[in-house]
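Q: Structure tokens for this one, please.
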Amino acid sequence: MLESKLNLNDKAEITLSGESGVITAVCQYISSETQYELLYCEKGTGRAVHDWWSESLLRHVLPSDNTRAES
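A: Here is the predicted structure, written as tokens:
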């Protein structure tokens, strides 16, 4: 198994939008980067969304102080 940047139940932020949520699933591939399913509230609508994101588009958010971890 490959080492992942994020783990299940980690808080993560989508770098493109600033939305953040919790990692609910991880999918690893032989020929492409790891994908993560993120449960988050969509900006504007506030509705809960589950979406898959590439590892390079997410940042880990530290639970203790809500600051970003180094990528």
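A few notes: The first strand starts at residue 11 and ends at 14. Residues 11 and 65 are 12 Å apart (CA to CA).
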